[in-house]
Design a protein that fits this description.
The chain is mainly alpha-helical and 124 residues long. The chain is built from nine helices and no strands. The termini are far apart.
Length: 124
């Protein structure tokens, strides 16, 4: 069976070794999953989905949309485009100084509660 595990791992910015450690398998086992040599058990699919912030359906190759189910089903959150999702994932990986620059640039678009967080970051 074809899996999108490698794509999900790369989108999350993880090496095979890092993801293997997080899910509790040997890197060679993860490599086998990525190459389709053997199938991961359902509990590992769930772990990988949570760690890489993708849906299990995406990992299983049932959809090209990596958006996790909890985001897709949220009625008060509009569906994010793949670009918006990539921006959010990049923000998570950014250091504090970069996040402050992004937050300051986007400040006019934030809700009042978010503005409070920006001020706290800037102060210290």
């Amino acid at each position: 069976m074809e899996f999108n595990i490698k794509l999900a791992r790369e989108r999350a910015g993880l090496t095979q070794k890092e993801l293997a450690q997080k899910i509790g398998v040997a890197p060679s086992t993860l490599n086998g999953y990525e190459k389709g040599n053997h199938d991961p058990k359902s509990d590992l699919i769930i772990k990988i989905a949570l760690i890489c912030d993708v849906s299990a359906d995406y990992l299983l190759g049932r959809t090209d949309d990596p958006t996790p189910e909890y985001i897709r089903q949220s009625q008060d959150t509009p569906k994010l485009s793949l670009h918006e999702r990539d921006v959010a994932l990049a923000y998570r990986k950014a250091n504090d100084d970069t996040k402050l620059i992004v937050d300051t640039a986007l400040k006019p678009f934030f809700h009042k509660e978010s503005e409070k967080g920006i001020r706290e970051k800037a102060i210290g």
